Amino acid sequence: MLNINFVPDDYVQNSESRRTNVIYLVLLLVTMIALGASFTAIRIRYRSVTAKEMLVIMKMSQIQESIQQFEELQAKRKAMIKTALMTAELLEPVPRSVLLASLTNNLPDGASLLKIKLLQKEPPKATAPKGSASAAGTSKVKPAANDDESPEQRLETLVDIEGIASSDLQVAVYIEKLTASTLFDNVALVESKECKSQVGDALLRQFKLTAMLKKDIQITKEDIRKIACDTVAIQ
């Protein structure tokens, strides 16, 4: 039995062509969607990498600032230590060990020290004398301190000394020795009173002295060696 196709060939070809075009359009759309998704993913990843890079750059910048601040602090610390050492040298021109050794070595036999106190203060400022000036205007004023000196260099070091001796003669000998010392100046007796010994009923003299360290004094290694030798000899 014969099969007779009543559909025209043009219609069949057009239908197949439309189907093919639709398939191509679908494939193109899928490809475009895939490309768009890939582009979006790459864009997002690029932004993420860029953000991480900026974060790393910010952290590196903060680390560099921290290192710079640390170096500045170290430099300030070294400067402060240097200033502190210079100030200490100015405030203590004579080491305390040398000062104590000198005070001890000059003690007469039988005398001993009870208390030593160091006090630093600025010297009194010069003032004009009271009263009328001379007709020629030649009134003398006490010279003021050197303006080139720093406040530390203008300080005077006072020494308060308390001790016990067996007699006033020993106190006088001690004052004489301190006056002849290369370290002290203006040695003066403040008080000398009688007191009982803690061991036995012997009567002793409790004395208080004041002295001043000489300004611009320079202690040499020879002076320190001599004081050390005197200390060893006494021991």
How many angstroms does the end-to-end distance come to?
A: 149 Å
Total helical elements: 4
Q: Let me know the largest β-sheet.
A: 4 strands, antiparallel
Low-confidence stretches: 132-144, 231-235
Spatial arrangement of strands, main beta sheet: 1-2-4-3
Please provide the count of β strands.
4
Which structural class fits the helix and strand makeup? alpha+beta
**Reported CATH architecture of the largest domain:** 2-Layer Sandwich
* CATH fold label of the largest domain: Alpha-Beta Plaits
Mean pLDDT: 77
CATH level 1 name of the largest domain: Alpha Beta
CATH superfamily (homologous) name of the largest domain: Ribosomal protein S6/Translation elongation factor EF1B
What shape does the CA trace take? rod-shaped
Query: Helix coverage percent of residues?
Result: 40-55%
Number of domains: 2
Share of residues in strands: 15-25%
